[in-house]
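Help needed: design a sequence for this.
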């Protein structure tokens, strides 16, 4: 890389200072990358590539000024651990990674890795697997490589140790190329958002038409994996009929989250729009202590990914079952009733309240899985949830009291927790519950049993609203029972 005359005229003192700071920079980088190596990264991992690169630099005892320019490749992003766009292909190589350790490996800058990869491409004829969602496609990599090496156009900020010499504004060509290729996806109208109709219609109308050909972009059609770029997968923590749920570590903030993604690919626009209703409901609802927190969502590989608050377990997990004395059930009932009051007041019905979809985090109960949420005013499609928890009117396709459907499901859920075994999907027990007939529950207060009974009343009008439920005097007991709620 050519150096400017001005730079060449630097005094010897300045140059030796530069070498000193650069050497410190390398020491930090080398220390950092060697710590990564101790965390059982594979030799092909990006960190090892970085280390090899840096080792070759450090072996050069007489570091000339020209060398300094060559090391422009070390960018400030390396210091600040901003994310890379390529994750080691073999994710298992990170399986021994101890997440509690301080020196969590941070991915390297996209500029640097593109360069390393493009060099490899030229020297070794190395091919990137075009089917691998964690890698660039071949053409993209070549394009980026060209960008990285067109020195006439590239304007780099020289980062030397802790000081940054700004010769020009730093605009990586790879970023420019990427920005040119990736157009913003179209806006999607959120039907749960009350003021959606007041928004500038052009954002939802014309853009759809203009951007119709860009749908592959929001489905991850550019080959980049946001999931593997942003998250380190720890383990699978759940599976429903439609989704897998994983515990993940977000690379940039070091926090754990749950990421849910659809089991199958959503090939058609209509399927994707339907799946989106879940995140649109979560986003429109906003935060509530008793509703699972929602962070973000995106399409990738034609699957919808949802980043959520990580909870400890669901009420259907075995580890939950031992804590269901009446006091604990009352606590769960009160908290989920508050969640229902919150969503009903926003005009939304959940329609799939059941133990599977109630999560626990630090002793707090949270309603999750808004995959069947709909609007109370019946303006969105209605898809009933798990039949075991559905009242008769829903099975008869009477959708006039969708909020009361949730109250029935919550009553049935609480009954199941007390009973300690799953509700039947058919037979006399199933029919009795639809008729509002609950067997006596020995050892439980009459007040509690009566409350459950009215919640599963066959007439939805007789069932209490979520607000009435929350205000029921039975919950005054909760304070007295607080000690018994604590986990042993
Ligand atoms: N945020 C979370 N924290 C912890 N575990 C979770 C979380 N979200 C989901 N799970 C676990 O994953 C399971 C499946 O998730 P979820 O119910 O959302 O999937 P689904 O396919 O939509 O389910 P369904 O079959 O009920 O429609 C849950 O029952 C729960 O055990
Ligand atoms: Mg579920």
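Sure. Designed sequence:
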């Amino acid at each position: 890389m050519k150096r400017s005359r001005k730079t060449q005229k630097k005094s010897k003192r300045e140059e030796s200072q530069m070498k000193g700071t650069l050497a410190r920079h390398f020491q930090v980088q080398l220390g950092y990358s060697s710590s990564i190596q101790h965390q059982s990264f594979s030799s092909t991992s990006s960190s090892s590539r970085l280390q090899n690169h840096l080792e070759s630099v450090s072996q050069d005892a007489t570091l000339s000024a020209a060398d300094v320019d060559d090391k422009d490749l070390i960018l400030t992003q390396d210091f600040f651990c901003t994310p890379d766009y390529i994750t080691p292909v073999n994710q298992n190589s990170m399986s021994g990674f101890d997440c509690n350790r301080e020196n969590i490996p941070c991915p390297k800058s996209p500029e640097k890795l593109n360069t390393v990869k493009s060099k490899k491409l030229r020297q070794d004829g190395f091919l990137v697997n075009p089917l691998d969602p964690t890698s660039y496609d071949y053409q993209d990599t070549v394009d980026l490589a060209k960008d990285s090496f067109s020195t006439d156009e590239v304007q780099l900020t020289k980062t030397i140790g802790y000081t940054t010499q700004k010769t020009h504004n730093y605009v990586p060509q790879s970023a420019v190329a990427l920005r040119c290729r990736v157009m913003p996806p179209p806006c999607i109208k959120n039907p749960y958002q009350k003021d959606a109709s007041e928004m500038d219609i052009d954002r939802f109308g014309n853009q759809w038409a203009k951007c119709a050909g860009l749908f592959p972009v929001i489905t991850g059609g550019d080959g980049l994996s946001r999931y593997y770029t942003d998250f380190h997968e720890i383990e699978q923590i759940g599976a429903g009929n439609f989704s897998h749920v994983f515990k993940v570590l977000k690379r940039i903030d070091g926090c754990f989250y749950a990421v849910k993604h659809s089991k199958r690919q959503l090939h058609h626009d209509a399927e994707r729009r339907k799946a989106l209703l879940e995140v649109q409901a979560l986003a429109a609802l906003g935060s509530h202590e008793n509703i699972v927190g929602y962070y973000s969502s995106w399409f990738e590989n034609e699957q919808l990914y949802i980043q959520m608050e990580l909870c400890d377990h669901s009420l259907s997990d075995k580890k939950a079952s031992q804590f269901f004395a009446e006091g604990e059930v009352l606590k769960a009932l009160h908290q989920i009733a508050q969640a229902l009051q919150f969503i009903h007041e926003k005009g939304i019905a959940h329609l799939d309240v059941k133990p599977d979809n109630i999560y626990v985090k630090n002793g707090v109960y949270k309603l999750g899985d808004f995959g069947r949420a709909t609007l109370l005013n019946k303006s969105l499609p209605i898809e009933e949830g798990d039949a075991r928890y559905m009242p008769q009117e829903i099975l008869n396709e009477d959708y006039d009291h969708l909020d009361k459907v949730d109250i029935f499901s919550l009553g049935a859920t609480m009954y199941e927790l007390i009973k300690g075994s799953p509700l039947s999907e058919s037979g006399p027990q199933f029919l009795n519950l639809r008729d509002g007939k609950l067997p006596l529950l020995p050892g439980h207060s009459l007040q509690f049993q009566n409350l459950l009974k009215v919640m599963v009343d066959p007439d939805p009008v007789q069932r209490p609203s979520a607000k009435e439920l929350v205000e029921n005097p039975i919950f005054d007991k909760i304070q007295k029972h607080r000690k018994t709620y604590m986990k042993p």
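The longest helix spans residues 12-37.
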